[in-house]
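Dear H.,

Thanks for agreeing to be a second pair of eyes. The structure we're designing against is below in token form, covering all 348 positions.
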């Protein structure tokens, strides 16, 4: 089945945080990085806000060049501790929208949202995610959505700043073809130069080259370029808890509060997870119940045992207790339920 992948990247991350912390800088060109020392400074630009970018200032540019391009800009040293704290808060928000999350950097992540039924729902989720980051952190982000990581990332790059762009499978060709070769991840300046020499400038041009030609030019990387130019990317969203836990989720056909249906489904999840635990000779210490409500709000409840276990009766009893709490505490309709066991120990 086709996947739905979401890529999120904060806009001008360090600079935007500095603007938030120092509102009097709003509307001015702002550069975060090394001290320009009146044009004599060494070191580089970490990032610049979008106003400063209009002067040609961007990440990794020597700070002395940035100073020459716009001497009146506000130049600030980076406050990494602050950015890390903000990043952690943002990831806490993102996590609530999908348990399959891969963090790429402080301000960038992929989440797998294939549990949604269609792109309309994906758009809704993306809007909520953006809105929650604005509400809780007063920061704008950009989201790209597509059938794989490559397309999701390229979509968000295209939509920056404060954007949301969805590229469905049927739109990939039209979206990719006009892009510059260097827009394609994996094509750096050197690869691009070799391609330009043979009059290849756009992704559409790349498609004129047969696979063997690309392999001849770039080795294994050539094959990847061939695939990417066609929007093909088979890589997974590498959730860090994938191996450390066993989990299953189920999205109901229709949001529900029918206890019979909910518990019947839950029993099924328990049975599947238990089977997987036994098959892998795992014992677990923590179990987590996940409940997503009709408005996508996702909550988890967890219980950690003193000793690890693989006992079905314990799993059933304790996880159902947690699920029951959700139902009692919250009157909203339920969209998805999930169960995960973690703190796994291999015991034969
Ligand atoms: P990016 O997401 O690449 O850039 P950005 O968030 O500033 O701008 P946008 O996404 O809107 O294009 O990087 C995130 C942060 O990482 C950035 O704010 C600063 C830091 N960074 C560096 O310190 N050096 C670099 O060369 C890059 C690219 C980023
Ligand atoms: Mg960013």
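And this is the sequence the design step returned. I haven't edited it by hand at all.
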């Amino acid at each position: 089945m086709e996947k739905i992948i979401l890529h999120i990247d904060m806009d001008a991350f360090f600079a935007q945080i500095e603007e938030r912390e120092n509102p009097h800088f709003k509307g001015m060109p702002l550069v975060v990085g090394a001290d320009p020392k009146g044009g004599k400074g060494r070191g580089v630009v970490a990032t610049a806000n979008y106003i400063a970018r209009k002067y040609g200032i961007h990440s990794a540019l020597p700070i002395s060049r940035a100073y020459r391009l716009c001497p009146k800009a506000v130049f600030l040293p980076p406050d990494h501790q602050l950015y890390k704290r903000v990043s952690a808060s943002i990831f806490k928000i993102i996590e609530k929208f999908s348990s399959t999350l891969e963090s790429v950097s402080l301000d960038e992540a992929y989440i797998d949202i294939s549990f949604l039924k269609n792109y309309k729902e994906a758009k809704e989720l993306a809007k909520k995610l953006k809105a929650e980051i604005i509400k809780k952190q007063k920061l704008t982000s950009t989201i790209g959505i597509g059938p794989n990581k490559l397309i999701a990332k390229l979509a968000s790059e295209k939509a920056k700043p404060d954007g949301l762009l969805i590229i469905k499978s049927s739109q990939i060709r039209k979206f990719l073809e006009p892009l510059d070769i260097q827009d394609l991840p994996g094509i750096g300046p050197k690869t691009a130069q070799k391609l330009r020499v043979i009059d290849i400038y756009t992704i559409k041009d790349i498609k004129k080259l047969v696979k063997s030609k690309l392999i001849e030019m770039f080795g294994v990387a050539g094959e990847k370029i061939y695939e990417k130019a066609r929007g093909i990317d088979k890589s997974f969203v590498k959730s860090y808890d994938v191996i450390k836990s066993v989990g299953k989720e189920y999205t109901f056909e229709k949001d529900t509060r029918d206890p019979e249906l909910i518990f019947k489904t839950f029993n099924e999840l328990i049975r599947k997870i238990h089977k997987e635990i036994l098959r892998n000779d795992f014992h677990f210490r923590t179990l987590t119940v996940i409940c997503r409500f009709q408005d996508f709000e996702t909550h988890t409840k967890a219980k950690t045992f003193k000793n690890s276990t693989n006992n079905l009766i314990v799993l059933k009893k304790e996880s159902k207790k947690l699920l029951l709490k959700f139902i009692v505490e919250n009157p909203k309709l339920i969209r998805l339920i999930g169960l995960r066991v973690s703190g796994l120990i291999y015991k034969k």
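Two observations from my side: The radius of gyration is 24 Å. Residues 9-14, 46-47, 59-60, 107-108, 160-161 surround thymidine-5'-triphosphate (ligand 1) (CB under 6 Å).

Warmly,
E.
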